[in-house]
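Hi L., both proteins are below.
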Amino acid sequence: MKRINLNENWKLKRLEESQQNSRFNIDRLDEILTDGSLPRDCVLQLKTIPCQVHDALIERGIIENPNIKGRNNDCWIGESDWIYVCDFSLDEWQGEWTLRFGGLDTFADIYLNGRLIAQHNDAFLPCIITKLDNLRLQNTLVLHFKSARKIVNSISSPEKYQGKVPAISMARVFRSGFHEYCGPIPELIRVGIYGHVTLEQSGIFGIEELETEVVLSEDLMRGTVSLQGTYAGNGKDLRIVASLKDDEGNIAAVCEQRGFSQDMVLHVENPRLWWPRTHGAANLYTLEVSAFCGDSCQDVVRRTIGFRRIDKVGDFDFILNGRPLKLWGANLTHMDTVSGCYNALRTGELLELAELGNFNCLRVWGEGEILADEFYEQCDLRGILLWQDFYLCYSMYSEEQEFLELCRREAESLVSRLKHHPSVLLWCGGNEMLLSRDYDHPGEYCWGEKIFGKIFPSVCAKLDPGRYYHESSPAGGLFANDPREGDTHGYTHLWYVPGSYYPVFLSENCRVSAPPLRTMQIMMTPGELWPEGYTNIMTKKQRLCWPETWNQHNTNNGAVKVGPVENYLDAEDPASLIYRLGAAHANYIKRDVERFRRGKPVSQAEGPRLTKGHLLWKFNNNSNIISYGIVDYFNEPGMAYYALRNAYSPLLVSFSIEDEIHVWLTNDTQEHYSGSVVVKLFNLPENKFTEEMEFLFSVQPDQSIPVGNLNGFLQFRREHVLVAYVFDRADKMLARNVDYVDIERHLIFPEDASIELDINDGDLILACNKFARSVELIGDEDGDRFGWMFEDNYFDLVPGEIKRVKILGRHKKGTIHAKPYYSKTESSICFGKI
């Protein structure tokens, strides 16, 4: 099959007011493609497609990137019409041709050589135009994007939807562009081409469509790959060959057929199994399907697949390849507010952070964007499971026939495209539709239920029957957010929710904190960061936990969604306020996620774990605002990220501090461990360990057990710190945890704690003379403090310990600084060749 990528030679132009929201006058194209008097009205020559309007304007310096400050000063972009123009030539134009747009956002009239050939109205669907009949040797392709803002505002809802279904939920637009929840402020509406544009000559031999289904037998001994193809060419002469190779290049199976006669099936005996990263190796196979005419290969399609079997045996109880599966991770939102174009570098950094953070699962959020095939291939390769939402979110939805049909086509497209990926764990109808009904219209019918209650599950049952379909997130129990059944969203900062201490599964759980100081200094002016005369004391008249100016860089009333800031000292400057918010966020994660990992109270120690998984809301910030993300807009991880990483340690030692203090071991590895747990009391004022206890243990995979209590210490002053070390039988340290029995506001940490630094074999080596609370590592290369990465950060260090931290990130040289939060002493060391 002949494929031509139309990714070059594009022009972009904003239409004048008189030409907007009407039928585009193609005869005036030359006149329209003339520079206007303002920079925003010039003709832009695009380097390549995909490229959305904001991408092009930012690259040319016509507008500032609104994500840097978190402020959108250019709402006119979403209120304007735009045209994309591409001139291209062909050597020949005979035969059947198909034009494919991987992604258009959103309302576009498409013209080829002066004729309107299609109209597009769904941001989540590819646009495929078949049997083009007006191609020439020289061609002009024009896309007229109409203002999504104006179209949505013009929608008139039927009376039955009034006050329940907003206009935005009557159209298939990228919803996050119509509110400022993810930033920037005010909302930013995307427009333009975000996927590849391809012209295919489909009348000759080739592969037009290929669906792949992968099944592993119950006994895990036989893998089957079924292929359903749509082929072009002379059926008599067409020969299709499918082969499967393992990751060493060995052929595992081959199948061949002539013509279009039947589906193809490949069988693999004793396949290498695909495991998530917490369970084993992510073994993959390469599927290659070739179309031949005689001995000449005319077309090839390649895909990676993996053999794994996931069975749901209870309420969010999953068994993977015969082994129990608990899910620990976070919600992945869209990468960047201004553009839906896939950014492999930015996404790759987030996936590396997911691996470093001990994640084995990411949720692709229902208010996010269509992600490229490369993303799913990377998750296959890295062993990261995906909870995949369909693209619905907090709202009721239209049930008009045209809208239902668009949603059905979206589901068919997404399932057909992704179902061969071993990383895709489950399908979910979307985000918080039932919850929005419960909150806003309790007891009423949830408009849109036909979509996620009938259409989506029927599509999944037909196209991908082996995967679990979940109606909506959250769903289950007596109400949508009931923690005792199905999944729940952890909104305990606003609601008292019965059963939230040991929920079945948390698909969201959140608190808010600020990004690191270096990011905040980009986001805000000095006067905003710390207004003159501001004091960080909460009173009856000043109830905010941060300055009023910070609200201009925050959405969704985040000041009431912070962690337990009351447990930390009032701030004296921006750095200490960022610490206060970050430490509170980190403390909330430590307390809650360690409890979820234990999965049960000590009174049920012999029983099964009640909590099956936890996905934090949210992983990444899409804009430079104060929000829920534990990784900021620049992919800089904060205190909360490292708290989550530690709480997700595959072998976790933790304390349940209640009427008694119990020491727990939670084993989510595939290994059996035995040895001893040593718990020590460290006296802060005296700067020394005062007592210790030792417990022997044996813990199996997927087991969570209390190994002992600390009653043997009798009573001790709350100024003591708890330190636990886990050793195997060879005295190798397997895990460690530091915890407190009093709030930090009451504790006095040494101001003269100093860190001794060394570098050995790419690792940073640290030791301290006095207890070092929250040691922060910062790198600096000629003033550049971004892009550094450390295996661990914001950790507590105890005298007598030697800590090794891998130096990661993009920097190969610079200066590394280490400073405990309460100490006045900062240490530094040169890294690499400066």
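That was the first. Here is the second:
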Amino acid sequence: MRKGFSILLTLLLCLSLWISAVGEVKAHSTSSKGSLVIVGGSLGSSNNEVYQAFIERAGGNKKAKIGIIPVASSSLNSSYDFKEKMVELGIEEKSVEILQISNHDLKGTDEDEAKWKNNVNKKKIVKKIEGLTGIWFVGGDQIKITSTLLKKNGKKTKALEAIWKIYQNGAVIGGTSAGAAIMSDVMISGGDSIGGFKNEFVNEDIYYPDKEYNPVFISKGLGFFQHGIVDQHFDERARLGRLISTAVDFEANKEKYYSYGIDEDTALVVDNKDQKASIVGRGGVAVIDTNSAKKDENKGTIQNVKFSYLSSGDMIHLDTKEIKMKEGKYQTKGEEYYDFQPLPATGILSSYGRLKEYLAYALVDNASADSVKSFVYESSGEGFKLSFKEAEDTNGYWGYTDGQKDDYSIVNVVLDIEPASVTFKEEEHIFENYREPVFRPSSSAVESSTIKGNLVMAGGALGSSNSAVYNKFIELARVKGDTRIGIIPAASSSLKSSELFKKDLIQYGVENEAIEILPISNHDFKGTVENESSWLDNRNNEELAKKIKDFTAIWFVGGDQTNITASLLNDDMTHSKVLNAIWDIYKNGAVLGGTSAGAAIMSDVMIAGGGSFDTLSKGFTETYDGMTQQEGGPGYLEQGLGFFQEGIIDQHFDNKARLGRLIAVTDELGEQDEISYGIDEDTAMVVYNNQNTIEVIGRGGVSLVDLSSMKKAGRKMENIELSWLTEGDQFSLDTHQLKIKESKVETKGYEYYNSPVAPHSGVLTPHGSLGHFLSYQLVDNEAVQEVKSYSFHEGKGFELTFKKGKETNGYWGYKDGGKDHYSYEKVIVDVVPGSFLIKD
């Protein structure tokens, strides 16, 4: 794995550079009265919590005087956007200034900003900085920041001295992406996790155009954060490996300091006076402890790394290294919610495929596991195995965020890394025990063209702040100016989710009197005096059915979809009187909606359980063991309610990695030339029956799975077409044509990226969700025509190849400020079974 003397020499050079880098800045130490707002990148314009944290520490919107440093960017757009946001939040426009600090020309302006490079030593700029209460560094290239504010000999320019002065006296310094990378003494300026694990460090910007990884580029930061090393874009770009490797080799005081990996749209907010750091925003912060880590360069191993993953509201005492959880979270240790055998995280078919989610659901909140594994490797198969283990002090903390989204924090998971190779061999008939489904659906026999109502199907984890979905449901619920909404609680184990949804509707403007939680259930709810299992008789209650005929909307909450169908279908699978009433209002113009289980019931074929890997390899079962079945095992199908007549629906599609099971179910039970639909979390697929069109709204996307041209031999399936639509995109159910949101542009022929891609192999894969992996790594990447992912367990599994075809295209734009917003169409997917040989 190592390159002998040359790598050692490079490492020594980096160490020398680091020692010279920190010597001067360390003199300031932690005596600063100021604060830091360190953002991991892709800060959404709607993420007011982070912006307010910055403004508050700058003196509040009446006293704040903000200077924006644009040098990292290629244009002034991000600086203008930040200024506009400051003004929107109440700061006077004259109190927010873009400082003329740059060492290069910026696009889109008449002025040559390269002329600003000498401003960093001019009194005019220094005087402006000395009157500020806050400095903001925009994102881009961190080297442009340091090469502008530091002299060639490593000394500070006068502008940087002025920034340090106001920081020491109480000002706040903030930045996103590149503006976060510069915060620590050791600055990580490039490279990836594989490069880190390979122990390849450089002190210049070296890029391997023909390799699937790059060495870790270490340089000198500005040192405002004196408590460890900082990395950014942490989860989205899977930078755990590069941060661990950097911390092991370059953090001089491991006993005293952690290292920190900050997710996108998330901030580490540091208050030096109190010696505290808090997490603010929509992602998390990884806290890496390498004090007891052991590295063996000859074997290529790193052992006994401890790390924690914190979320919004959690806090760290920087002087004692104590971690304090947000109030209201519950410990998982000894009270684990899940009890299933997790598969290793090996690729695109791994449930909870991102690092924090995987460790939360599969390890710390799972009674059946005390260790889990993942991999990262190149196309050659050479790479590394990651073993995540629970120790005595490992714990998880769970609560809700943004309504009823799971919110986890994790402390003291132990990680060992060792070299490993993965070899795949195609074997068409390796899964000989695959079982076809016995289940066959009965059709609702209602032509969608006769239905005047609409559907709002959310993929689960619907945030209370997701105004697009709530407002669309409310808009469609207004039939002839009237609104009356019924909530069906049957899927849940309690009434809390129904009560919360009602509260959310009121928040969005619906009158309390217009909303009713309907007494429909087949089981008792927790936390109530009444035994709601007696409500099962209500499915044929004529008064309840008559009441429903006055409703303009019905919403099904999430939980277990089999409880919904059992509460509305008679024992002989005929429609109950209440279900007939729901059908009547739907046909006459009402909107039906639901999240998670409430989306699963919408098609005739209802997917009630199973994981992607097990459904593809084992097939289907006729038995169902409740919620555990939803975390894995062979597929389980039941009769749905059939409100959506144009295909099969699956949900939690991205987070629970359900591509494999939707392909398997569609292969077995899909109609000829019919599309199947996988809806991501916090996202809704809206069906307009009168237009026979669907629209995507919300924060994720909807995957369209088309098997009409598939070729199949045993468990080998080739030429599947996969498209992914995101917010604002539409799809015609008649013509199967896409209508992409106008603000997006085609990527075909104008690809932004141009680099080789390692396989999707687990939690250390950049852009790891299905939609993002294919967007960034394939359709917007000129260098590749195909990318691969491997999923395996106990020596058996699948090779998935995603390819560009003649009709493949991608579409890109911005959303929520400067976040990338992708869609793609007609990516070709091949699923090939085979055997795997893993060598440690």
